[in-house]
Specification:
The chain contains 17 helices and no strands. It is mainly alpha-helical.
């Protein structure tokens, strides 16, 4: 299909993921990694160091004493949190612009992405997921395909909306029907172009459709659940709307009950109330 080829060609022209992000993700993908290697990378980038100090002094982390050095930040927060702050600071530039095709104003895609990452992190902590930095990154980037697809969605929005309203299709299903692919599968193509680890690529590709996810299913289902909880809370949902039901099968897979959803939504509200520095990075 010509349109699909045209869309995929645009992936090749996206700015690359900063090399430092790729290096950090490669390091932390080893369960026995030495955090000193991450710290050494952070030290050589003054912008990253500034991000770390500003964010770890924000109300989100609730530290009693002001942090004034990278060594202090590392001692107080630990490796996972430092890695997440570093990744957020380097990724935010891709998400600043409005995505008009999805009816998302400037910064809304970032707010949704960061909220999903924070929710996935909370789920991972609760369910003892072994690789929180990778989970956080997969959730942070789950909608990266919208950076490429927004223009085409905008051009075909009436057709997509008609399928959603008249045939009851999900927005992502209507995307696929009209354009030949959806933002999730396109996002996985972007992630592979950026040489991101396979678990992240799978989390992006299948966060709206778990059935084909045979590998790395644990990260896929956590990112999928985090995204649904954030959409239901109305954070950066844009044209996809609210009230996305959480499938019972997904809850069973992750070991949660329906009654847990209300508690998780309240936890998410508390997280977002405290996370202004992270959520407003795209301003």
């Amino acid at each position: 299909m010509k349109l699909v080829e045209e869309i995929l060609a645009k992936v090749e022209h996206l700015p690359g993921m900063p090399a430092i992000v790729q290096q950090i993700l490669l390091i932390v993908s080893d369960p026995d990694f030495e955090f000193q290697r991450v710290a050494d990378l952070v030290r050589i980038d003054p912008g990253i160091t500034a991000d770390v100090l500003r964010i770890c002094n924000s109300p989100f982390y609730g530290l009693r004493n002001k942090i004034s050095s990278l060594d202090q930040a590392i001692a107080y927060l630990g490796s996972n949190q430092i890695v997440e702050i570093v990744l957020s600071g380097k990724v935010v530039g891709h998400f600043k612009k409005p995505q008009y095709g999805y009816r998302l104003a400037r910064g809304e895609l970032w707010r949704h992405s960061m909220a999903t990452a924070l929710m996935a992190q909370r789920l991972g902590e609760r369910l003892n997921y072994p690789d929180l930095p990778t989970l956080f990154t997969g959730a942070l980037l789950h909608d990266v395909g919208k950076l490429v697809l927004s223009e085409h969605v905008g051009e075909k929005f009436d057709e997509i909306e008609k399928l959603v309203n008249e045939q009851g299709m999900s927005f992502v299903h209507a995307e696929r029907k009209v354009l030949g692919l959806d933002h999730a599968l396109l996002g996985a193509a972007v992630a592979r172009k950026w040489n991101l680890p396979e678990p992240i690529c799978h989390a992006i590709a299948f966060h709206h459709n778990l059935e084909p996810a045979k590998k790395h299913r644990a990260i896929v289902r956590l990112v999928s659940l985090a995204n649904l909880l954030v959409v239901n809370l109305g954070v950066g949902s844009g044209a996809q709307g609210l009230a996305a039901p959480v499938p019972q099968g997904l809850l069973q897979e992750v070991g949660l009950k329906s009654r847990d959803l209300d508690k998780l939504s309240l936890e998410l509200k508390d997280i977002l109330d405290q996370a202004d520095e992270l959520l407003n990075m795209a301003r």
